[in-house]
Amino acid sequence: MPEEPAHRYTAALAGQIELAWQDRWQQAGTFRAPNPSGPLGDGFDKVADRPKLYVLDMFPYPSGAGLHVGHPLGYIGTDVYGRYMRMAGHNVLHTLGYDAFGLPAEQYAVQTGTHPRITTEANIAIISAQLRRLGLAHDDRRGVATTDVEFYRWTQWIFLQIFNSWYDVEADKARPIAELEAALASGREPDSGTNPSGLAWADLDDVERRRVVDAHRLAYLHEAPVNWCPGLGTVLANEEVTADGKSERGNFPVFRRPMKQWKMRITAYVDRLLDDLDKLDWSDSIKLMQRNWIGRSEGARVTFATVTPDASIEVFTTRPDTLFGATYMVLAPEHPLVDVLAADAWPEGVDSRWTSGASTPREAIEAYRKQAARKSEIDRQAESREKTGVFLGMHATNPVNGDQIPVFIADYVLMGYGTGAIMAVPAQDDRDWDFATAFGLAIVRTVQPPEGWGDVAFLGDGPAINSSFLDGLAVAEAKVAINDWLVEHGHGSRTITYKLRDWLFSRQRYWGEPFPIVYDEDDLPRAVPDSELPVLLPEVDDYSPRTFPIDDVTSDPEPPLGRADEWVEVTLDLGDGPKVYRRELSTMPNWAGSCWYELRYLDPTNENAFVDPEVERYWMGPQLDGDLGGVDLYVGGVEHAVLHLLYARFWHKVLFDLGHLSSSEPFRRLVNQGYIQAPAYTDERGFYVEASEVTERAGEFFFDGQPVNREFGKIGKSLKNMITPDDMIAEYGADTLRLYEMFTGPLDQSRPWETKAVVGVFRLLQRIWRNILDEETGQPRVSNDDADEETVRTLHKTIAAVRDGMESLRFNVSIARLTELNNHLTVRYPNGGVPRSVAEPLVLMLAPLAPHTAEELWARLGHDESLTWTPFPEADPALLVDDTVEIPVQFNGKVRARITVAAGLPKDELEAAAAGDPGVIELLDGKTIRKTIVVPDKLVNFVVA
RNA sequence: GCCCGGGUGGCGGAAUGGCAGACGCGGAUGGCUCAAAACCAUCUGUCCGAAAGGGCAUGCGGGUUCGAAUCCCGCCCCGGGCACCA
Q: Rounded to 5 degrees, what angle do the CA atoms A265, A261, A310 make?
């Protein structure tokens, strides 16, 4: 029997309402944000007097699995905020595109032969349907994908801007490379390290000059160590390499070796990337992560002479004050000096621990390098690991005391940081201590540890000892003194180093942006002219790179683009007549598109520029003195705290330097949303198993009959624990899903998914609906009577609290306060008749959170227009304060009584009222008041004995 | 290993130096009903107590303060990142 009232708020009704409103919004173009000019400029005059607001989400990768319930957390958050701010009077720009180049589509293509574009477009279609169903207020004209030809054409253009630039340290900004060429021609010295020949510019031939210029560019070719997997024919990410040095796919050996790669000179920007952090509205934790990642440290370079002339070892140290305690040295196994320095034979009486049993140093080095090449960097830095290494059979001279100290290679020293070599001071460094202990090396303390310090390194401050002229100085003083000494005697200099390395920009893959670069007969790179853009990704019949015998370390990769024979060679006229050139075969990394997509959203159809300057200035330009400009609110996962956010800041600054942008930072305010976590399960081997097929018996978890371990982590394919929004929408509707995700906690907090708790917010919508509409007829059951004073006060307190929650992105509190208001109405008006003067603000406050339901209620209350542009209710400050307040009276900080007094009672009167209260007098009997703390409107605390 | 974040009832959370546990889920009891569901009402941190009332309680240990979930120090556990996953 269908007992249910015809107009009750059910999942079916919610679904109908939602689809109808989504169609209506789309037809009306409700969420289209007009630009100040250009093709998207229609209707700007209507919003010209509003402040602008640019809200941005980190865009999704269109994975084949579609969206999971974790994705929309941020999207709903920005949607609620954007809708609220629009009602609060702003011109809001909000849209969403796709970060669509990437490995999964390519790997699928390798396996199936399906073109990644087909897979990607199908995935985008699925995801955009999922997103549309959430009712997000996006401007549908702006949602570009990084794989669109008209998008990556500009990614290539920006690459060329970077390629055709150099960093002028004097001017502290990037400048066009042509200006460098002009300066070099008129006598400017090349930057250090860019002219290995040492000859004057006039004495260089054309090719040598081009090499010098190329070495200045912000995008340049460089030998960089990578994980080379000949069996797969490609370079792998550290995460694709297993602990024992095999590829995760295929289980082939992986070798760490240098390879010629494109790099981006992000290190030229370190100081600006650091300094400008101060001006950004980002959380302190993210700023700290970026600072630590950049890793600026002040220290000294110290030169250690060896018996080989012209082959002294340069080290960077942050502790030059400990130089007297340097009892040995370590080079990274890949360090170029290793081959130069290594002795031909072991010295007489060499310690057997130093040789690893090899008969000559070179033999030991070769074996050790092989072993080190199989380890990941994370592994190599793990402090817990046992220290390994081999002796080079030779010594270096400690410049301060002339001691001959042995030189080793060891994998705990990395080529990528500092100079790739260290002076080892076991007494003041844990890793050096462990190594020295294992190899029987001398340990000399040069900082006095405190009394009773154990048999371990001492990293703290204390007076210098065993250090000649430094003795007695504290660490900071000793650093200054030794630096002066090093400079004076020509053994070193004060320097600053950074952990940040230049950005490795090449990928030996198919599904990415082709480089707009060709090589000439001298094998030097040349820019493809802007008029030849885009360089289209060619068709190939096989998406995999050429593979090699699994232990062929030395062969060079042949990326998939090499299979496009007709494409690889191209005839161009680069100003010296038509010639045949060979194209760059690698593609750009996935990060490239995400470095500038926020700019393209502003002007997605522009064919003449990546963005129109006027449009960019309107949406992202600096607003006040000291403001650097950028997106007004950027929301995304904290996993992008360093890489994406640093790369995007870097590109933005280059474009700013070259005069293409008015803003010098891309993201003015950043909020990291939390994760929705879900249980994931690993089997005995540590591999993830499909979470939906795991069963629970008596608190234990089983997969396919075998016990598995439960952990909580990010939802997604890698943990095999997908939960999709589609099921939730089918069961409750999109507004309920939106409310649930916003209700489970503040936006920046992670939370576990709990399907059975979703019903709570569904009931809230149902109760609001019932308080406003008759469930039998669907007609309003509100009255035009005035609300009573308590209801009016409750309404205004709710408005203030809801606004506060919206602005601080703590929507859970806004929802709780709306629930309280609605509960109050349910009790006060059990038979209907909620005053319209309360019902309407309630609907408007609900609108950013549950827009479909709110629109429907608003329409049924008799409004023809969408409430999207209706002003958000404002609280009357006079109604926020009550006439009387209840004050807790504490004894020694514990509440013992309560008194009710007039609000705003001054301190002395409040104290008198508390002391005069009969209950308090009784409690005070026999006690002495030592002190009284009075906080008006808050509490009274008697400190008694 | 290094860097960042988090830990409050059975569960999600509220309170950011001033009444710990708002709001919701779950649970209990009652109403309505022939009955069930739905709905409505009341209760629901824990221990002692018939009650009144009181003790304990915000991962663990210490500290600052009249007063600490909140600030400081040390530890434990969980999550994120570590440069070619996105």
A: 80
Nucleotide of closest approach to A500 (CA, C1') = B83
- The nucleotide whose C1' lies nearest the CA of A898 is B19
Say if residues A630 and A662 touch (Cβ distance below 8 Å): no
b/e map A68-107, b = 16+ CB within 10 Å: bbbbbbbbbbbbbbbbbbbbbebbbbbbbbbbbbbbbbbb
Residue A536 Cβ < 7 Å to strand B: no
Contact A388, A353 (CB under 8 A): no
Closest nt to residue A498, judged CA to C1':
B83
The number of residues making up chain A comes to 945
Smallest CA-to-CA distance from A235 within A261, A214, A211 is with A261
Question: Which residue in the block uniquely carries the two structure tokens 């994760």?
Answer: A675
Query: Among candidates A580, A518, A520, A524, which has minimal Cα distance to A208?
Result: A524
Tokens 């070892």, residue located: A313
| Structure token digits, residue A425 | 């001071």
Backbone φ/ψ region at A348: left (φ over 0), alpha (ψ -120 to 50), beta: beta
The Cβ of residue A20 has, within 10 Å, a number of other Cβ atoms equal to 14
Residues A313/A416, Cβ–Cβ less than 8 Å: no
Per the structure block, which two tokens stand in for A190? 């090349």
Identify the pLDDT of residue A383.
45
Q: Which of residues 45-74 of A touch strand B (CB under 7 A)?
A: 60-61
Give yes or no for a contact between A422 and A302, defined as CB atoms under 8 angstroms apart.
no
CA of A646 to C1' of B74 (A): 34
Low-confidence ranges of chain A (pLDDT < 50): 1-2, 383-384
| CA distance linking residue A322 with residue A327, whole number of Å | 10
Q: Are A93 and A143 within 8 A, CB to CB?
A: no
Distance from CA(A841) to C1'(B86), angstroms, rounded = 41
Angle value at C-alpha A546, between A545 and A547, nearest 5 degrees = 110
Identify the CA nearest to A841 among candidates A818, A807, A824.
Answer: A818
CA A486, A487, A490, A493 dihedral sign is positive
CB A24 within 8 A of CB A864: no
Q: Let me know the angle formed at the C-alpha of A296 by A294 and A297, rounded to the nearest 5 degrees.
A: 150
The 3-state DSSP class for residue A92 equals strand
Give dist(CA A107, CA A544) in Å, integer: 8
Question: What are the C-alpha distances in Å from A25 to residues A50, A140, A572?
Answer: 21, 11, 49
Provide Rg for chain A, Cα atoms: 34
Q: How far apart are CA A643 and CA A541, in angstroms?
A: 33
C-beta of residue A343 within 8 angstroms of C-beta of residue A223: no
Q: What pLDDT score does A700 carry? A: 63
The strands making up A569-573's β-sheet, listed across from edge to edge, are: A525-527, A517-519, A578-583, A569-573
What pLDDT, on a 0 to 100 scale, did the predictor assign at position A379? 62
**A238 CA: nearest nucleotide by C1':** B84
| C-alpha distances in Å from residue A448, one per residue of A299, A429, A451 | 21, 14, 9
**SS3 of A6, please?**
coil
pLDDT single digits (tens) A543-580: 988 889 988 888 888 999 999 999 999 999 998 899 99
Residue A636's nearest CA partner among A283, A933, A306, A129 is A283
Contact A402, A413 (CB under 8 A): no
Give the distance between the most distant pair of CA atoms in chain A.
Answer: 106
